[in-house]
Records
---
Amino acid sequence: MQETHISLAHGNGGRYMRELIDELFARHLANEFLDTTVDAARIVLDSGYDPFVTTDGFTVKPLEFPGGNIGSLAVHGTINDLSVAGAVPRYLTLNAFIEEGLEVAQLERIVSSIGVAAREANVLVVAGDTKVVARGEGGGLYLATTGVGLRDTRVDLGMHRIQAGDAILVSGAIGDHGTAVLLAREQFGLRGEVKSDSTSVFTIAQALLKAGGLHFMRDPTRGGLASVANEIVAVSGHGVRLHEPSVPIQAPVRSVCEMLGYDPYYLACEGRLLAVVEAGRAASALSAMRATAGGEASAIIGRIEGAQRHVVLETELGGERILEELEDDPLPRIC
Amino acid sequence: MQETHISLAHGNGGRYMRELIDELFARHLANEFLDTTVDAARIVLDSGYDPFVTTDGFTVKPLEFPGGNIGSLAVHGTINDLSVAGAVPRYLTLNAFIEEGLEVAQLERIVSSIGVAAREANVLVVAGDTKVVARGEGGGLYLATTGVGLRDTRVDLGMHRIQAGDAILVSGAIGDHGTAVLLAREQFGLRGEVKSDSTSVFTIAQALLKAGGLHFMRDPTRGGLASVANEIVAVSGHGVRLHEPSVPIQAPVRSVCEMLGYDPYYLACEGRLLAVVEAGRAASALSAMRATAGGEASAIIGRIEGAQRHVVLETELGGERILEELEDDPLPRIC
């Protein structure tokens, strides 16, 4: 395409739209299943597995941040939802809502990142759609992705399997993504020392499945670790007790949060996995996680309790703090 | 939920978001596969069929218009893409990008319409995500839907099957949706006499599959009939000749287009189906279409030609007009 910026004509169903789709999107996302001339894409799903679907919207601001951009984030977010369900991600569909005036070069960097992240995760983008909205009716670019994956029919994971006494593990430091996005926003005037943790957790999830004793996995994105813990309490009916000194938090994340008044327990991660594992298998699960690339900083951070219905954080000083369910918005458009 | 308008807190991963999802979305879309506490939904796909996926974004303005709203439009658009591929729609995923300040009552009307349209089409919404963007960064509500369907493995449809001499049929009047949306925009100061044609074309598509001789189907949405015809020319390498007096166009659509300078051949339909059928089977295909509810006004409107590489419209006065590929945007945010 010749144009340097997206115009409304790129959304009208005519030549400009065809060029945008063929010369930008399809070029970076090409695979044997992607055909821009069909209404629906045929996919192949091996028999003997349970198919899983998941979907996510992405509105992060700024569109590019240290450690990733909205494109890599969308791929990671979607394959992570399949991964923590115990499935192997196979196919993605992609929707792009593009604001008039977006620089084509920036769009191309983002779509290129989608292609790279998809290839790294061994998933194929098989269908897509683009819409252009007028200046002032969008945030540059919003993405929506749907993922299809396959899970071994013998796997049973979920909130229903969580029991009192289970150990809670996390695959790395929390709050990196939220902090990186925060720092990337110009109005704070701070330089970004922290990179987003945006990445695939698929390898870690598979290692946990093999290690055994696994009851539940989740990626703590919007609302962070505290929100996942509160959801466990709300759905499973068990309490959650976290041991603050064991929770990995990077020093710069800690100091940025102190400076700006944020609580790292509520900040999004986009490449971390929280696992609930049978107590007797916690040590071997931890070893399995630490043996994966990206899981080296994994830690046992707490346990499931039967006696109470809160998320309790045992502080370094021996006190206790309740991590309440989030009421106000700490950081809009973070994912 | 207690609130009358959407706030940023409805997007933060905490209590407000949970209430929005559980009390508004899940209430209207409830089915045995939808579980708001999981990351990915297990679906069941009967063996012996080819799975198909499709995805679409929706940005129509205004959000509600005579004959439908962005919610029913999203369901119809997605199941129609599966239907014209010859598949039976089974599952949907739904993404909602909601602008801060949207009236909750309006959102509820729209989500309710999604539920009604899905039930009518016998599809289940199995996964969803909501994001809230700040005032001035959205158009009220954008939706993205992905559909999963199943097709008989023996079906072979597509541009590759189109041959010179094939008949072109359409299932009803063209341009109704585009015109209805146009009239619903206040700035034109015209009353809406035209209703959107937004509906499912599944029954018509299945009737055509049974009738035999079917080579290709498409729903002429963005860019209208002229854009589908131009895509046939570009991809199949054959010409398209349309017979203007045979193309069904409602009188009010025609007069609105004349008044405002739009060409109905480029205006979106959201419930029409264009079919390319073997010449000898055109009459029986037409009968099959006319026998369906919603297909009563079906017509044979033209034929595929080998000799030229354009879309030619034979006018009522015996002249010829080339329907060029769309260059400029006739009507943004129409779907």
---
Amino acid sequence: MSTKLSKEDIHQIQERINPYVHHTPVMSSRLINELSGGDLFFKCENFQRMGAFKMRGASNAILSLNEEQKSRGVVAHSSGNFAQAVALSAKMMGVKAYIVMPTNAPKVKKQAVESYGGIITECEPTMTARQSTTDNIAEKTGASPLHPSNQDEVILGNSTIATEFLNEVPDLERIIVPVGGGGMIAGVSLACEALSPLCEVIGAEPAEADDAKRSLERGEIVLNESSSTIADGLRTHLGDRNFPIIKRVVKRIITVEEDEIIAAMKLVWERMKLVIEPSAGVGVAVALREKELVAQGKTGVIICGGNVDLENLPW
Amino acid sequence: MSTKLSKEDIHQIQERINPYVHHTPVMSSRLINELSGGDLFFKCENFQRMGAFKMRGASNAILSLNEEQKSRGVVAHSSGNFAQAVALSAKMMGVKAYIVMPTNAPKVKKQAVESYGGIITECEPTMTARQSTTDNIAEKTGASPLHPSNQDEVILGNSTIATEFLNEVPDLERIIVPVGGGGMIAGVSLACEALSPLCEVIGAEPAEADDAKRSLERGEIVLNESSSTIADGLRTHLGDRNFPIIKRVVKRIITVEEDEIIAAMKLVWERMKLVIEPSAGVGVAVALREKELVAQGKTGVIICGGNVDLENLPW
């Protein structure tokens, strides 16, 4: 989106998706404030429906279809949270959801999609196969394809994370946002730009998948050569719909190492009693490490989700 | 306490400890409501300071000492949450805390007590050694002994869990409370009796440590012959200060099996994104199993704490 949104635009999106999403709580921790020397506020999207912020983009995207499009359904490929978000949003709105999942997707995620009434098609675990299977379904059924991060209506839905956050803590000096496909940070950027232009939007990325940091530095989208990070939600790359917004609003992206991500995640489980996923640990790790950054004023940190395999913890 | 408390008594206790404890949130889960068929409200004492409700009793007990007693300090023996609660409460009130801990207490608990400024004395891991070490310290220093569950001021402090809960959800038909030493359920009973006498107080206990259930049935305190339950907070027995209250107010105690406790705990982690300890899982397990009980009206469940060893999970 090449133009800024107005406050009214932002509030309209919030009103539109309100019936379909949770207004998630903002939490804080004396101990983590002491450790970081900051005044940190955590926006808990792990308490969002289906356990992650993806619900916001998915529901906004389906709501923006016309009746005729809705009657033909939606289709998305995803091995994780977005699949669940699309299936659940579609179910609430009475829309069919075709979900393409790689054969190696975790069983528990498939079961969750099924429990929300999603119609699963399995494919080979390659991006090419996922895309072609999705295209085939879209062609055959007329279903509208949804993209987890690189689609305007998804980005707009994600803006509501920051709308709620700034409503509750209006004087945030900065918000730290994990960056994967770029859909969340782009949405947060749009809301900050409209509602609190002095609030700095800072990206948080694993050093092992630092494509967004390099993209921002180069001024063009670059890909990850490898992406062996535990933060499985952040292995993807930016897209042409979100990158222009990120370039316009985000001044810096800070990377953290794998051991910092795991330590931050564990700290939040132990001391805040919150189950958060590794991708959420990335933002916390930045806040814990960058003591100078957080020393002044209030810092927001987005806990993007809490979907983890409890049988496979990294400690 | 042989007499009922008045509403005013109850509110005075709440006001007194307010500056020292968190007002914890009440949460609910669509999915767990669907699974149980009930309308469940969880009082999240896992978000309490030091991670468990024990903070309430400990702080109220120290606050009720006179200045001269305070100057001599307090002493308690505990291998777990109560040690941390006493140390932290005492620190906030500028009172010395002598903590007797068995040599086999988890290192992480000792470190937590130290970080709150508690003065640790180690002893053999037997109840006799713990008690005699505590008595010795009390005699030498003049410190006031605090008991985790069988002391009036501790029980009164615990009443505030239900005071807050009923304030937020006034029409609870019942509250399910895990029972270990009996201090929490006695406190909750006093508050319900004063504020909402029609709200039924129901105990939840592991079948492997069902001393409270048997005590209530017999009308006298009986002990556990063994107590090999994962719910380590519930292995203790009732005492002469709390049992009369329990007998007066609590009509039934429901037991659950070990596999139900673990499944309930895991379900709350996975779906509510809350880290809760096994003892808290006991109350959730009762709510999940007793479908007829929870079918009518609103049911409160007390999540007593969230202190677990993340390196040693039961799944």
